[in-house]
Amino acid sequence: MKDGRTHLAHKAEHAIDLDTGAIVGVTVQDADAGDTATIQQTLPEAAEQLEAVAAVTVSVAVIEEVVADKGYHSRTMVRDLETLAIRTYISEPDRGPQSWTDQEPERDAVYANRRRIRGNRGQRLLRKRGELLERPCAHLYETGRLRRVHVRGHENVLKRVLVHAGAFNLGLWMRMRFGVGTPRSLQGRVTALGAVLSTVWIFTYRAIRALWAPPRDSRRSSALFTGFVVTESFV
Fold first, then answer.
1. 128, 18 contact by CB (below 8 A)
2. CA–CA dist 65, 49 (Å, integer)
3. Quick check: 171 and 181 in contact, CB under 8 A?
4. pLDDT, tens digit, for every residue of 151-168?
5. pLDDT exceeding 70 applies to what percent of the chain?
6. Which pLDDT score is estimated for 214?
7. What is the dihedral of CA 123, 127, 133, 134, to 10 degrees?
8. pLDDT at position 222, please?
């Protein structure tokens, strides 16, 4: 805007694999769209990407469970996912007493989801979701500076987000293969390697100097040591 403010025009949504922490689906949609509406595009996108991965590998990747926060909870959404044979672990907001007139399938799906999120496994998955989802958000939007973009249109914004998401997944792969996935972690490894090389050089230099140093006179050393003891005892 002319006064320097910006409108929230784009909403980027991610789908994360809870086993690896990798981003498997990214969409950019209208900012005024609710979570229950945007997930209807993000979830098929994630399924399509998983099918593409399965086509070039020997593994079979399908969506079996969906873990989300309470913004994605609605009776229709939970019922639709259950119809697709997908178990839901979606936090339920406090809505108070509800009416289920002529909505028995929605009621059963909501109650089943409620039982799952109250169990030990459901609580563990929700905690893991918070851990793995906030990490790419920090990399993309805080460190990656994607809170503000200077391109127009959802398509161009999506290109920027996909580049950052690809870099994040590449960092995960590098960390798994080499133990280093970011420049910051590489900087720490370089510092540690420099300290190790410096220590090895010091010990090597001292060992070589001890080998080439002329032998000391043992009698002189013993006399000096004896004189020191005598002087200390005398005092």
1. yes
2. 16
3. yes
4. 888 888 888 888 888 888
5. 81
6. 63
7. 150
8. 39
Both tokens of residue 179? 């133990």
Extract the runs of DSSP E, i.e. beta strands, from the chain. Answer: 10-16, 23-30, 65-68, 87-90
Give the torsion sign (CA, 145, 148, 154, 157).
Answer: negative
Burial of 156 (0-12, 13-18, 19+ CB in 10 A): middle
Confidence band for 63, pLDDT divided at 50, 70 and 90: confident
Give this prediction's pTM: 0.70
Task: Tell me the two tokens of residue 173.
Answer: 């792969």
pLDDT score of 78 more than 80? yes
User: What's the angle, vertex CA 62, arms to CA 15 and CA 166, rounded to 5?
Assistant: 40
Determine the Cα–Cα distance for residues 47 and 17; give it in Å rounded to an integer.
11
Q: Which residues contact 32 (CB under 8 A, 6 or more apart)?
A: none
pLDDT at 134: 79
SS3 29: strand
Of 108 and 138, more confident: 108
Q: What is the pLDDT of residues 204-227, one digit of tens each?
A: 878 887 777 665 554 444 333 333
- Could you give the CA distance from residue 86 to residue 94 in angstroms, rounded to a whole number? 23
- Residues composing the chain: 235
Contacts of 110 (CB under 8 A, 6+ apart): 75, 78, 79, 92
Question: Is residue 88 within 8 Å of 119, Cβ to Cβ?
Answer: no
Identity of the amino acid at 50: L
The residue with tokens 């209208």 is 30
Interatomic CA distance for residues 201 and 195, integer angstroms = 10
Using CA atoms, how far apart are residues 70 and 63, in angstroms rounded to an integer? 20
The DSSP bridge pattern shows strands 65-68 and 87-90 to be: parallel
